[in-house]
Amino acid sequence: MAKHELEYERVRDHGIYVKFPVEGKKDEFLIIFTTAPWTILFNLGIMVNPDFFYARVKTGKETWIIAKDLMESLKKKTGKNLDILTTLKGKELKGMRYRHPFEKYYTYSEFKGNKKVHTVILSKEYVDLETGTGLVHMAPGCGQEDYEVGHREKIPPFNNLDEYGMFPKEINKFSGWKAKIDDKKFIEILEEDGFLIHSETIDHEYPHCWRCKNPVIFRTTTQWFFSVEDLRQDMKRLNKEINWVPDWAGSRQFDSWLDNLRDNGITRQRYWGTPIPVWRCKECKDYVVIGSIKELKGLGGKVPENLHIPFIDKVKLKCKCGGLKERIPDILDVWVDAGTTSWACLDFPQREDLFKEFYPADFILEGKDQIRGWFNLLLINSMLAFGNASFKNVYMHGFVQDAEGRKMSKSLGNYILPEEVISKYGADVLRYYMIGGAAPGVDINYNFEDMKVKYRNLDILWNLHNYLIMQSNFLKKNPSKIKSPKLGLEEQYMLSFLNSRIEEVTTLFENYQLNETAVKIEEIFLELSRNYVQMIRDKLNSGSESEKSAVLYVLYESLIKTLSMLTTITPFISEKIYQNLKKEFNLKEESISLLSWPKADKKLINKQLESGMQETSEIVQEILAQRNLECRRQVK
Question: Cα 323 to chain center, whole Å?
Fold first, then answer.
């Protein structure tokens, strides 16, 4: 698994305090603490902080070495008296040799020539005084931090678990045991052999697989990596040029992720996936990385049509040493595929014309979990390939939760399938509700009542288009043919309102503030229905021909331009309404999506008129509310 595929969950685990006998000293022990008992077998060193004070303390017949500041904590846990014999700095413990508690079960013969194995090692970065004893058990084959220190000290990693986490048959005592699952068995052995001081359960964060949700174990394996640590500063510089919505997703979250970015493992030991294009000679270990089918054919002759496993592995390449290069059996991490989307979908490098026109992408959109996933690999891959960012703008959305803000899950029975909503309200209503339902990067609490509101709003839009068709048929006028009618005050107001909203929606879209667009578009057709249509009824009934033409013109203009914007959010109803209008009014374009984006006519915008109409509307609404209140009083 990749580091960015880990999800940390709070769990209860075993925490144990273990004695490691100091070599050449009777009854003297280094005391370590660990929450991973299964890793004790793979211990090759003990880390201490060179600047901390440590104490040799007497307890009964034994002498223990622990951090001075953690004496009281250990005294409470064990119930033993601890009397200081001497104190010393951590750096004075460097090189102290010890015997492994499991040496009678495993000889560690492969490390006999390494004088640093099973000695005290100095580490400022990974030894603290928050918990434990101030002495940290180091198993370089069982974790990244331990591996780093071991690598620095030239202590090789040791971990002979198989890929299922099982201990090998060679270690008879532990044969068939499973890492982490059998922690209790290791604790029992340590206790039987007299090396266990204290055992407890603790709450702590532990990594789990984001797919199956099971806890993971760490073991060293040979992998291929993208070397990216030296590129972090360049990527941070590029990140500042990307427009993130919300801003904090890029300036805080993604920037922080880049700060802690490590070289990225790209190989996986699975069957399905893109075979890694690396051929290596078994004899001289020379290897070649293949960049194309053409290159592979040039080196190896016949290439199968199907480039997946097992067919691709039939291709052998001649090596300069006389041996044969065979493809290493790994596949590429799927995130490498995902991270090349921005040019792979343009058929680059086969087609340079599309690449020059459309790369980098203007806009991408994904959920907040992709800081460590897709967003991360898109930037890493493009940085390695081209030295740039593969996207200019990104909108990061949150997750869907239930009405009470809980994560939807089968176990809670609170999940809702999209099909349930679509079958009842339609796909448009779901899109309409979701796009405007939450701020970017924020989770949305799904609510059926809010869905119903959006459903009713689209019903209003549908009725408006029927109203326009009905009035145009009654007046025998085609509103699409009406040009420059004489506008009354009501028409001036509605066109001002329309063009103000077009200007606002255009700005919102250009700045990728997607969640704010839906409400601004809906304001247009709701205003048409609630106010404008009410104001012009008399004009349609008894007004002049010029007034009727003006009304039809405004209704049509407002609807067609609203649909041109709304189709980005509710494409199905927008298209259906347009097709009805096209049929009635003989419109030219085949689809609403082929119309140009509406441009705001600033000459028609009258903010003072809009403000005055809003105040008037509020006054009327208040009068009506007070009248209804008075009616109720009289009835009582």
Answer: 44
3 state DSSP class of 193 = coil
- Would you say residue 414 lies in a domain? no
User: Residue 126: which CATH number?
Assistant: 3.90.740.10
Structure letter (DSSP) for residue 500: H
CATH code, domain with 599:
1.10.730.10
Q: Which domain holds residue 282?
A: 267-332
- Its pTM stands at 0.75
- Identify whether residues 310 and 368 lie together within a single domain: no
Q: How far apart are CA 179 and CA 160, in angstroms?
A: 11
Length of the chain as a residue count: 636
Which tens digits make up the pLDDT trace of 460-475? Answer: 999 999 999 999 999 9
Catalogue the E-assigned strands of 306-423.
317-318, 324-327, 331-332, 361-367, 391-397, 400-401
- DSSP helix/strand/coil, 33: strand
Question: By percentage, how much of the chain surpasses pLDDT 70?
Answer: 100
State how far the Cα of 560 lies from the Cα of 554, in Å rounded to an integer: 10
Q: What per-residue confidence (pLDDT) applies to 366?
A: 95
Q: Which amino acid is at 179?
A: A
Mean pLDDT of the chain: 92
Contact 315, 252 (CB under 8 A): no
Query: Phi and psi at residue 361, in whole multiples of 5°?
Result: -65, 140
